[in-house]
From TrEMBL:
Family note: Belongs to the glutamine synthetase family.
Keywords from the named record: ATP-binding, Ligase, Nitrogen fixation, Nucleotide-binding
Record has Secreted as a keyword: no
GS beta-grasp domain mapped to chain residues: 17-115
PANTHER family: GAMMA-GLUTAMYLPUTRESCINE SYNTHETASE, TYPE-1 GLUTAMINE SYNTHETASE 2
SUPFAM superfamilies: Glutamine synthetase, N-terminal domain, Glutamine synthetase/guanido kinase
Function: Catalyzes the ATP-dependent biosynthesis of glutamine from glutamate and ammonia.
GO process annotations (BP): biogenic amine catabolic process; biogenic amine metabolic process; glutamine biosynthetic process
Single Gene Ontology MF annotation: glutamine synthetase activity
Protein name: Glutamine synthetase
Required cofactor(s): Mg(2+)
Chain ranges of the GS catalytic domain: 120-456
Pfam families linked: Gln-synt_C
C-alpha cells in the first residue's frame, strides 16, 4: 500500500506552501471517492489522525438516496457517524488539481474503532489477511476501458445522453493515427497518474469509436484497488478540464462495444519474490495451487458475478461476438472465454477474469475473486481442461447470469461468500442489489416510450 508521498513530505510541502488542500477520501459501495477537502495545515496538525462522516454513505444508492432496509444504517438508528481513518501510506500528490494531495481512509466503527465490516476496503483487507495467514501475496491488475467524448458532461446531459460525439468517429483499436487525436486527454492521463504514484504501462485505442484502454502495472491487491479508484476519478477530472467527458458505463450504446475491467490475478510468496502459479512440469505450466485457485473461481463465478456486474446496465454488455464473455469456462489465450490463462510458460503466469465491467467496485471484485480462489484451494478442486474454440457458440457451457435479478438471487444463496465475508456483510450487498432492481423495475425507459407511446 503506497502513495508517492510520505506524511513527513506532506508536512514539509504544506509548510512551504506547495500543498494547501488535502482530499481525505473513503470509497463508497459504488467504488467512488467520497470525503472532505481539508485545509492542508489543519489536516497535518490534527485531522490526519481521524475525521468523521455520515454512515449513510455506505447505505445509499448511486443517486445518494438513503436506502431503507439496511441493518447497518437507517433513519430509525438516526444515521450516525463512522470514523474515517486516513491510511497515511496512501498519501499522494494530485497533479491535475492545484496544490492538492489525497489520502485514502479506512472506515471504522464509531464506537469500537474496528474496521466497518461492510466497507469495501475492509472487505478486501479481510481477504488479503486470509492470504497473508497462508504465506501468500495476491498480485492484481485491472485493465480499465472507457469512452472518451468530444462533449462536456453538461452538453451530454442536455442531449439526454443521445447522439454524442466520440473523440474519434470510428473504431481505432490499436491504431496510432486515431489515438493521436485523443492525446490531449490520454497523454495527461498517463503522465499525471504516473506523477501521482500510479504507474501506467500504456494506453491504447479499443474496439469502439473513441474507446480507450489504460493499463496500470500490477500491485498487491489493496494497493491496486486504491490505484483503480483514483484513476477512475482522476480520468473524469482530467477530461472535464480539457472540455471532454469520459464514461465507464458497461454498455453505453447498444451497437458499440462495452467497457470491461479485466482482472489479472496470481499468488506469490510472502516476500513477493517467488511466483506460486509457475511450475514448468505441471499441465499448462500452472502449479497445483494455481489450478485449484482457478477452479475455485470457475466453480463460484455465478455466485460472485454481482461483484463484477453490479447494475442493470452491466448485463447488457454480455453479448456474443463483442469480446465480452457469455460463458463460464477457461481457455488458453482465448478472448471468448470468461477466464483466460495469460503469461503461460513465464513467471508472470496468471488468470485473467474477463467478466467484470468498468462499472465494478475493485475492492468488492478483488475480494470475491480471492474468496473463490481460496475456496478452490481449501476444497482441493481439480481444474477442468481448457476450452478450445468459440465459446459464444458452445451451447453446453455454463452461462454467466443474464440479468441483475438472476445474479442477485444466486448471490443471496452463496454459502461460500457468506462464510468468507460474514452473513451480515453479504446481506448488506444483497439488499443493495435488490434495491437497484426495484428502482429499475418501477421506472419508465426511453425504449418503452419509443415502442409504446403511439403503438400500444
Amino acid at each position: 500500500m503506497a502513495g508517492n508521498f510520505s506524511f513527513d513530505q506532506l508536512k514539509k510541502a504544506v509548510s512551504n506552501g506547495e500543498i494547501d488542500t488535502v482530499l481525505a477520501c473513503i470509497v463508497d459501495m459504488q467504488g467512488r471517492l467520497a470525503g472532505k477537502r481539508f485545509l492542508a495545515q489543519y489536516f497535518v496538525d490534527s485531522a490526519h489522525d481521524e475525521t468523521h462522516g455520515c454512515n449513510y454513505l455506505l447505505a445509499a444508492d448511486i443517486d445518494m438516496e438513503p436506502v431503507p432496509g439496511y441493518k447497518a444504517a437507517s433513519w430509525s438508528k438516526g444515521y450516525g457517524d463512522f470514523v474515517m481513518k486516513p491510511d497515511l501510506s496512501t498519501v499522494r500528490r494530485v497533479p491535475w488539481l492545484e496544490k492538492t494531495a489525497l489520502v485514502i481512509c479506512d472506515v471504522l466503527d464509531h464506537h469500537t474503532h474496528d474496521d466497518l465490516p461492510h466497507s469495501p476496503r475492509a472487505m478486501l483487507k479481510k481477504q488479503v489477511k486470509r492470504l497473508s495467514e497462508r504465506g501468500y501475496i495476491g498480485y492484481f491488475a485491472s485493465e480499465l476501458e472507457f469512452y472518451l467524448f468530444s462533449e462536456t458532461y453538461d452538453s451530454a446531459r442536455k442531449k439526454h445522453w443521445q447522439g454524442l460525439d466520440t473523440a474519434s468517429p470510428y473504431i481505432g483499436d490499436y491504431q496510432i493515427g486515431i489515438t493521436t487525436k485523443e492525446e490531449g486527454v490520454m497523454r495527461r492521463l498517463r503522465n499525471e497518474m504516473e506523477a501521482a504514484g500510479i504507474p501506467i504501462e500504456n494506453s491504447k485505442g479499443e474496439w469502439g469509436p473513441g474507446q480507450e484502454e489504460i493499463n496500470v502495472r500490477y500491485a498487491e491487491a489493496l494497493d491496486m484497488a486504491d490505484r483503480h479508484v483514483i484513476l477512475k476519478n482522476g480520468a473524469k477530472e482530467i477530461a472535464e478540464s480539457e472540455g471532454k467527458a469520459i464514461s465507464f458505463m458497461a454498455k453505453y450504446n447498444y451497437g458499440l462495444a462495452g467497457n470491461s475491467s479485466h482482472i489479472h490475478n496470481s499468488l506469490w510468496s510472502a516476500d513477493g519474490k517467488t511466483p506460486l502459479f509457475y511450475d514448468k512440469k505441471a499441465d499448462w505450466m500452472l502449479s497445483t495451487l494455481g489450478q485449484q485457485w482457478a477452479a475455485g473461481q470457475l466453480k463460484y463465478a455465478k455466485e460472485f458475478t454481482w461483484f463484477l456486474a453490479p447494475y442493470i446496465n452491466s448485463y447488457k454488455r454480455f453479448q456474443a461476438g463483442t469480446f465480452a464473455p457469455t460463458k463460464i469456462m477457461w481457455s488458453e489465450d482465448n478472448r471468448t472465454a470468461g477466464f483466460r490463462l495469460c503469461g503461460e510458460g513465464t513467471k508472470g503466469i496468471r488468470m485473467e477474469c474477463r467478466i467484470g465491467g468498468a462499472d465494478l467496485n475493485p475492492y468488492l471484485a478483488f475480494a470475491a475473486l480471492i474468496a473463490a480462489g481460496l475456496a478452490g484451494i481449501d476444497e482441493k478442486l481439480e481444474l477442468q481442461k481448457p476450452f478450445v474454440g468459440d465459446a459464444y457458440q458452445a451451447s453446453r457451457l455454463p452461462e454467466i447470469p443474464k440479468t441483475l435479478r438472476d445474479a442477485t438471487e444466486t448471490l443471496a444463496k452463496s454459502k461460500m461468500l457468506k462464510q468468507a465475508f460474514g452473513e451480515d456483510v453479504l446481506e448488506h450487498y444483497v439488499h443493495t442489489a435488490r434495491w437497484e432492481q426495484f428502482e429499475y423495475d418501477r421506472r419508465i425507459t426511453d425504449w418503452e416510450l419509443h415502442r409504446g407511446f403511439e403503438r400500444y
